[in-house]
Design brief:
The complex is a heterodimer of chains A (193) and B (199).
Chain A: E1 23-30, E2 37-40, E3 49-56, E4 64-70, E5 78-86, E6 89-98, E7 101-106, E8 119-126, E9 136-144, E10 152-161, E11 171-175, E12 186-192
Antiparallel strand pairs in A: 1-12, 2-11, 3-8, 3-12, 4-7, 4-11, 5-6, 5-10, 8-9, 9-10
Chain B: E1 3-6, E2 23-34, E3 37-40, E4 48-55, E5 57-58, E6 64-70, E7 78-86, E8 89-93, E9 105-111, E10 122-129, E11 141-150, E12 158-167, E13 178-182, E14 188-198
Parallel strand pairs in B: 1-3
Antiparallel strand pairs in B: 2-14, 3-13, 4-10, 4-14, 5-14, 6-9, 6-13, 7-8, 7-12, 10-11, 11-12
The chains are: A mainly beta (193), B mainly beta (199).
């Protein structure tokens, strides 16, 4: 027999005190100058899950990985699996023993027909404060370089840092190639209760 | 004319705690059957938006139909890319037209008239990051959608997919309205939605 978890009717969250059980913004940063990404450190361990929303582009000429590091670990212990849609082609791929996790790509200026094209993503870290498991994420993101056939991509990513079981206290989201992120790019981290 | 829902007169806006925390329910409606459903007067005081939806289907003469979205332009300024699975088939598409860009954004699939079981629905979630700067000073407006559901109990009648895109409007301003409609059919049936603002 399954364990039942009754939830409150929707109307019960429509009162001010629902703020205590919803979600909290931990940090929000919009890029205004030169910088290669974001670091969210000293993440409170009081939430159940973390949600990271971002939108960005790159000042570089080449397409660039969007990298993810947990707790500033830079050893080759990251693994990811991706599902991609590109035009009419669906494909899957994986990355093993890399020095950062991958959650998307940013379109470089070469071949990009409009400087306002970029990428966006949402990354979920379920159970991030549980110290007895590898830090793990699931993410989905987009990418547009042109408004023509074959000019955009859709991705679903899953990945983990498999060095040691640990809670997540720091998240870095950054250009894998070390190139500056375009001013106006934004990342927001939420804690979900 | 679409059925419109001004957010400011919707069931709930928690103004006392506006921007103080994370998610806020900004508006909702249930079981709307119309040619189009619009969420309008979206407050520009949050950082990101999220829509959760549920729909029974459309009256298109096919087993399934795409759910289209306008933000609000009807011009061909929507760049779509999806990857989804139906039965044992994995498919990637750039929206509903043969060429990019399209005249609407695609956010999922639902049943068409020939595929509708009595209790079969599709559901989905859509993120609109940084919606108050709909791509105008730095980047165009993105949407990140996920959709799943069924149209009957047969093989090949259940789907799951991600549907993303960008809306490259040249009109300054934040995202103030979102309209949903069937891509090929004429009525989107039993459409329910919730709009959340992320403070």
């Amino acid at each position: 027999m399954a364990t039942g978890f009754p939830v409150k009717p929707l109307e019960l969250v429509d009162v001010p005190w629902h703020n205590a059980v919803g979600g909290f913004r931990i940090a929000d940063t919009t890029v205004v100058g030169a910088g290669t990404g974001w670091t969210f450190s000293s993440i409170p361990q009081t939430f159940k899950h973390l949600l990271l929303l971002w939108v960005a582009s790159t000042t570089g000429t080449a397409d660039d990985q969007v990298g993810l590091r947990i707790n500033s670990v830079s050893t080759a212990n990251y693994h990811h699996q991706q599902l991609q849609g590109l035009g009419t082609g669906a494909s899957a791929g994986e990355g093993l023993l890399t020095t950062f996790g991958q959650v998307s790509f940013l379109p470089g200026s070469t071949g990009r027909t409009d400087a306002k094209y970029g990428s966006a993503g949402v990354v979920l870290f379920p159970g991030y404060s549980l110290a007895g498991s590898f830090p793990t994420w699931v993410s989905r993101s987009d990418f547009t370089k042109t408004a023509s056939t074959g000019g955009s991509r859709a991705w679903l990513y899953g990945g983990a840092l498999q060095s040691s079981a640990q809670a997540i206290t720091t998240i870095q989201l950054f250009s894998g190639g070390g190139v500056n992120i375009t001013p106006g790019s934004r990342a927001t981290l939420y804690g979900l209760t | 004319m679409p059925t419109t829902f001004p957010v400011s007169s919707a069931t709930f806006i928690d103004t006392a705690y506006l921007n103080a925390y994370g998610a806020r329910l900004l508006g909702k409606a249930d079981n709307i059957s119309a040619a189009a459903t619009s969420i309008v007067q979206i407050p520009q005081t949050y950082k990101h938006l999220m829509v959760a939806w549920k729909a029974k289907g459309t009256n298109v003469a096919a087993a399934s139909d795409r759910i289209a979205m306008r933000l609000p332009s009807t011009s061909n300024i929507y760049v779509n890319q999806d990857v989804h699975g139906v039965g044992a088939t994995t498919t990637a598409e750039e929206g509903g037209s043969a060429t990019q860009p399209d005249f609407s954004g695609i956010v999922g699939l639902c049943a068409g008239a020939s595929g509708t079981g009595a209790n079969n629905f599709s559901v989905g979630q859509i993120w609109f990051p940084n919606y108050t700067d709909a791509g105008l000073t730095a980047l165009y407006q993105h949407w990140l959608a996920i959709s799943g559901g069924s149209w009957n109990s047969s093989t090949g009648a259940i789907h799951a997919g991600i549907y993303n895109g960008q809306y490259y409007t040249a009109t300054p301003g934040g995202l103030a309205s979102i309209q949903f409609q069937p891509y090929s059919g004429t009525t989107l049936a039993n459409f329910s939605w919730r709009l959340y603002g992320m403070g």
